[in-house]
Amino acid sequence: QVQLVESGGGLVRTGDSLRISCSTSDPTFSMFDMGWFRQAPGKEREFVAAILSRDESTYYSDSTRDRFAISRDNAKKEVYLQMSNLKPEDTAVYYCACRWSIIGISPTDSQTYLYWGQGTQVTVSS
Question: pLDDT for 10-23, tens place per residue?
Answer without folding.
Answer: 999 999 999 999 99
